[in-house]
Amino acid sequence: MFNPDINDYQLTSIIAECCGGVAVVYSALYKPNNQNVAIKRYFVDESKEKEKANLIQQDILTRKELQHPNILSYLTSFVHGQELYVVSPLMTLGSCRDILDRYFQEGLPELACAIILKDVLLALQYLHKQLFVHRSVRASHVLLDTNGSVKLSGLRTAASMMVRGRRQRQLHNLPPPDHDNANLMWLSPELLEQNLKGYDERSDIYSLGVLCCELANGAVPFAEVPTTLMFTEKVRGSRPQLLDCSSFPEPLDDGEMKSMYNTDSGVGDSADGVSRLRQVYANRKLSDTFHHISEMALQRDPERRPSATQLLNHAFFKQIRKTDFLPSLIGRVKPIKADPSDMSALLLQEKLSEMEIEKQTEWDF
Amino acid sequence: MDPRMCRQISSSESLPDAEIVEFEESNIIVPQESDDNFLLEGSPEPQSVTWLDDDQIDELDINLDQNNLFFHRVDSADIIYRNKKKKCKMVGKYVMGDVLGEGSYGKVKEMLDSESLCRRAVKILKKRKLRRIPNGEQNVQKEIQLLRILRHKNVIELVDVMYNDEKQKMYLVMEFCVGVLQDMLESSPGKKFPQRQAHDYFTQLLDGLEYLHGQGVVHKDIKPGNLLLTLDQTLKITDFGVAEALDMFSPEDTCYTGQGSPAFQPPEIANGAERFSGTKVDIWSSGVTLYNMTTGRYPFEGDNVFRLLEAIGRGEPAPPPRCVGPALRALLADMLRRDPALRPDVHRIRTHAWVQAIPPLEAGERLVNPRSRRSDEHHNSTVIPYLVERHYASAQEYFTERDLRHELGDNGSRTMSTAELSDGESQCKRRWNSSCGRLPSCRLT
């Protein structure tokens, strides 16, 4: 049990700002048992931003309901001052998106992809069985830990197929918009179409296919094209691909390269970075089973896409051995550590301890 | 009106590039030389190019049956279509799609938010037209003011308002809906819904009304034509043009003006009362709506508006048919009481036996699908063809009947959904362009 009291936590560093500045994630020490945790601190004025507050509430409610080793669990939450704090286990290697940006711009090694994708599929298999559609499967929502565990987060946008006590055959609404609409790049064509046919849990399988490409290529498919073109491309059935010597036989010139693939992910933004990536793609060979599984998941017609359970039996995962340990496959990734020089975290801590708050209330859901 | 993607060109040989003349859709072009055998595919004149659209082709078929009893063989490769240009137009961040409906004020079109990709509907109001409608401009201002404040699952959401001073146009961006109850009723057997379906809509109407009345808003024009459905069958009350916000500090809900649709007006308005209870007007109109949805008829009828109002003024509704059952008959009688004071309010209606129990779907009854006159079966986005034009401008302009049949597996005159068409493995551009949208019905080969 974790106490819903800010005084039991020592903030140690800032991990990330997220949700377009609405929240900040800190690493923290839970003083009663010296355990490291992650704390997400939301700045939400409930009177003005009722919808946002509802989403956070939804996130917590969903996570309370779901228990699975591959889904980021919920420990506790509390209000302190004007802000809401949500406590989760600390995943010390951070999100796959951060890892790709900082250490693997050309994508993760295939075996690492396989291990991660398998765990994400286990999470999806469970979610789908509980009649949830995640609607936000993407590398930034896949978290890794030094102990080798992989957890899916981002339950904020998950939707239940149970509406007013009745099981729906399909859903129709877009997930709630994120601040920059980036989430759309991972969404399936049938979800984006918003027609009477609607979508169901197989939409997550399409997003998993996009995740395959994201993890293997480093870049997100469609990242550099206008949103409306991404939409028409998906509706017309154009599929993103894994980039290797089979799909990328001749290096393109720089201009084309830039226009086709997102290389704008931070460090590798220079022309050098682009040509280096080009070399990496053209010289590597990903397995046929990897190509196959991503093609299966990215099929335009949801009826043809395999379920999470079917994908878990795919030959692609046969390459994983019991002795394979994810953190050693991505050895260059440094874990998040308490950063004594992270002044802002320390200052915040000071400010918080000075604040006299009459009574701590746990959010009552 | 009908989004025709293609027009037909007939010619004996391959397309004469220089001789293409584009005609207006409304013109039927008849070759000059003879009245009898018009539309001669194999005409010796290589430049006889005929532009037709669906209606004209239908007409020609009839004419051919009467006058022309010989067959003329034409190779399917010789019938050439041209993609009709769908010029992509943006208003603000929105991409315009096809027309969804038309009213006296202007058009309602589909739009796509180019940032969030959310489907929207836009009511386009032309100042010039608004001036011609009594209270037009005031009603629109009032509607905008009301909709900005109102927020409920069963009340249409006003997403955005844009103005174009130059064109004197106003754009009201709303939630996207797939159908109007009125259109669905007109297309269904007996012009009514199974009670199960009517119950679903009616309870949602009650939810919306309860919210509105709680907010001190009287709609005053509740009718199936103002009740929309979203993709997931959520009912939305729309058109607040004649709605009224009541005085928050007055204990009563007195209104002085009624401008709603005659068939749904209560006796007090039909009799020209100077003041009346606002919320009870909505109760009456909801009663007429429920009556109409479950029986396919109206409680009051008249040959003209005058007679109709006279009948309503007498306040003796035609009893609903016995087959609707005692519970519903009692509810309808209650809601259509002549004396507004005796009509139940929303809370009382909720406790009524018919509202409390969900009626079963009787044998032989089928749920009516949401539809509108202008969309395909799945209500696919009508913006996609415009986006295709925008993003793939170099796409092939001409294609032949043979290509078409090849694409469609010999089912030439069927409307294909965009989803259906892009399901295939092929990703080439020609495939898409030759087959998206509506196809002309061509029965000449």
From TrEMBL, chain A:
GO terms for molecular function: ATP binding; protein kinase activity; protein serine/threonine kinase activator activity. It comes from the Eukaryota. PROSITE patterns: PROTEIN_KINASE_DOM. Residues 11-317 form the Protein kinase domain. Pfam families: Pkinase. GO terms for biological process: protein export from nucleus. One of its GO terms (cellular component) is serine/threonine protein kinase complex. InterPro entries: Kinase-like_dom_sf, Prot_kinase_dom, STRAD_A/B-like. Belongs to the protein kinase superfamily. STE Ser/Thr protein kinase family. STE20 subfamily. PANTHER family: SERINE/THREONINE-PROTEIN KINASE FRAY2, SERINE_THREONINE-PROTEIN KINASE FRAY2. This is Protein kinase domain-containing protein. It comes from Parnassius mnemosyne (clouded apollo).
Automatic annotation (TrEMBL), chain B:
The keyword Transmembrane does not apply. The keyword Phosphoprotein does not apply. Keywords: ATP-binding, Cytoplasm, Kinase, Magnesium, Manganese, Metal-binding, Nucleotide-binding, Serine/threonine-protein kinase, Transferase. GO terms for cellular component: cytoplasm. It is found in: Cytoplasm. It catalyses: L-threonyl-[protein] + ATP = O-phospho-L-threonyl-[protein] + ADP + H(+); L-seryl-[protein] + ATP = O-phospho-L-seryl-[protein] + ADP + H(+). GO terms for molecular function: ATP binding; metal ion binding; protein kinase activator activity; protein serine/threonine kinase activity. Residues 94-355 form the Protein kinase domain. Its EC number is 2.7.11.1. This is non-specific serine/threonine protein kinase. It comes from Parnassius mnemosyne. The lineage of its organism: Eukaryota, Metazoa, Ecdysozoa, Arthropoda, Hexapoda.
